[in-house]
Structure formats: C-alpha cells, structure tokens
Amino acid sequence: MTTEQAAVLEKKDGVAVITLNRPEVKNCCNNAMATALQDIMDEIDEDRNCFVAVIHGAGGNFSTGADLKEAASGVKRTRLRRGGFGCFVHPLRKPLIAAVEGYAVGGGFELCLTADMVVAAANAKFGLPEVRHNLVAVGGGLFRLPKKIPCNIAFEMALTGKIYDADFLRPYGILNRVVEPGTTLESAMELARSLLVNGPTALAASKRIMSKAFEWQELEAWENQMPIAQVALNSKDRVEGLKAFAAKRAPVWSGE
C-alpha cells in the first residue's frame, strides 16, 4: 500500500477490505479518493468471490469527510455515477461493515451510514458538523440518520453540529460493537467472517430487501421482495446449500 493510492482494495478469503488511504489529512475525501472508491465498489459488486466487505481508515482515523481545502481552492467536485464518496447514492450491493477508529465526521459519518454494520473504537468520534461551516450534509446523513436512531437525537446531531463519542451513540443501536482502540479492523473482520458461513447470493438479496424497508408499504413489500429473493432462490448456491444440509457438511459457496 502506498500513500499515492487514495483508497486501496485487498481481498482476503471472500472478504474485501477497503482502506481509506490519506492518513496525512485524516482520510478526508478528495476527488481522487471518491473516484477510487467508486471503482472499488464496482469491482466488489462484480466479483463473485467477494461476499462481504469491510471499510476502514489508515493512520488511526476513519474519515473527517470532504476535503474542504480542495473545495476552497476552486477544484470542482467530480460528479460520480454512484454519488459522493463514490457510494452515497448507490451503496455497495453486498454487506458492508465499517471499522471506525478516531474521527468519522461529516462525510465520514455519512459513509458509516451507508454501511450495514459499524464496529467502533471506544474513543471514536462521530458527528455532522457541516452547519458550523454553513454547509449542508447532503451525503445522505440528514435522511439516513433519522432512520437509524430516534428523530430527536438525529435533529440534535445535525442541528448542533457537535462531535459525539461512541458512548453517546451506543444506546441508540447505531453501533454493532464498541471495542478497544486499535482493534476495530480485527473485530470487523471477525464479524465479516461470521457472515461467510451463509450463502452469498442470499446475503446480497437480504441486504437489498432490508434496504427497501422504509420505502415499501407492507403490502407492496410482499410482492416487491420476490424478484430480489428469486436471484438467490434460483442460484447454484441454493442447490449447494440444500445438498450440504442433507449431507451434513459445510457448503462450498460459489457466489453463483
């Protein structure tokens, strides 16, 4: 891994590990990082051997959000197909776990909100400080956060612009694990590996259906879920899962 790579992808036994790699600026996201993240998300989505992904930051911080110095210099933000940070509008289709050390604020916090699970260090810091600069958190934070925690707490976070520690967020269920500093990646990888025993096409389908939970009314959900579920139910992995169950052995997933 080199500092010239703004974001780095490594693949480890079915788990894709994404590293935000601008530690000298606390992994704030410039055009290069956003473009790299979009390319990485595309690659993971298309790779049948990658079933789960973990995203973390190099150098002791997750991300402090958008690179405001780049913006202030007059550099125009690259318009990306998947939205800001290369994933805000179209997040990863496969399960994504955020491993948070240090600061996850602004767009860094919004990146956590695109993840399906969050493992945080006990001393991690979270927040949406955009209003303090007369900016607006347009990376999804203003509508994703109220879906994950009580609305009044989401209002407090967004409208005060304060930075909060893991203990503040822990009671609201937004954090799956709170662990010792320096161990979040290890803990997130352990969580990721616990998913690998399950069928990958079923994992992807389950994530997609659950992501629609706030969009569908219950009656339409019964109908809308089926085309998504059929991808898994008609897959080779479903056949393998049933054969493995009958033979009392561990399944060998193919992602097909």
Automatic annotation (TrEMBL):
EC number(s) given by UniProt: 4.2.1.-
Primary enzyme class: lyase
Tree of life domain: Bacteria
Any Pfam family: ECH_1
PROSITE patterns xrefs: ENOYL_COA_HYDRATASE
Keywords: Lyase
Listed GO MF terms: lyase activity
Alphabetized Gene3D superfamilies for the sequence: 2-enoyl-CoA Hydratase, Chain A, domain 1, Lyase 2-enoyl-coa Hydratase, Chain A, domain 2
Family under the similarity heading: Belongs to the enoyl-CoA hydratase/isomerase family.
PANTHER family found in the cross-reference section: ENOYL-COA HYDRATASE, IP11341P-RELATED
Annotated protein name in UniProt: Carnitinyl-CoA dehydratase
Source organism of this protein record: Cupriavidus oxalaticus
